[in-house]
Amino acid sequence: MPDLNGSLSVSSPVRGTALPLETVPDPVFSQGMVGPGVAVHPEPGQEGGQEGTQEVTAPIDGTLVKLHPHAFVVMAPDQRRGVLVHLGIDTVKLKGEGFTLLLGEGAEVTAGTPVVRWSPGSVAARGLPAVVPVVALDAAPGDLGSVAEGGVDNGETLFTWA
């Protein structure tokens, strides 16, 4: 949600370990081709970690402008900033298997609203990375501040977007 100076707080859609986007094993994300952000690696052994299913939540208030089983985009109310949440790498190959959509495209959401249910472990068992890139679409790297590193809970701030 935007604060008084117009910066947008982007929260973690899953629980795990926040690492630089450069750690994602896909150049589209690691080289910042779609924008800067943070990679969240779901943790094995944690509730909602890789062994079980977990609900992936909206990182900001806004509108679900794109919704696929493996990825979604929430557009902020200012209609200038969109945040991409991508569940795993190359998971489009799964054709929706292992993902359950909880909302429809066009839905209005608040940060923390469940959007998709998935199992990071089932993605990993198919040989695909279960990392979750959270990207500020078309932003400049210098637009992000207060970037989280280390353990994050679902709903905890990942970064702010000026």
From TrEMBL:
Q: Where in the cell is it found?
A: Cytoplasm
Q: Which organism is it from?
A: Nocardiopsis changdeensis
Check the record and name the PROSITE patterns matching this protein.
PTS_EIIA_TYPE_1
The protein's UniProt keywords, in alphabetical order, are: Kinase, Phosphotransferase system, Sugar transport, Transferase, Transport
- In this chain the PTS EIIA type-1 domain maps to 26-138
From the Swiss-Prot or TrEMBL record, give the protein name: PTS glucose transporter subunit IIA
Q: Is the keyword Transport assigned to this protein?
A: yes
Q: Name one Pfam family in it.
A: PTS_EIIA_1
Q: Give a yes or no for keyword Transport in this entry.
A: yes
Principal place where this protein is found?
A: cytoplasm
InterPro entries associated with the record = Dup_hybrid_motif, PTS_EIIA_1_perm, PTS_EIIA_component
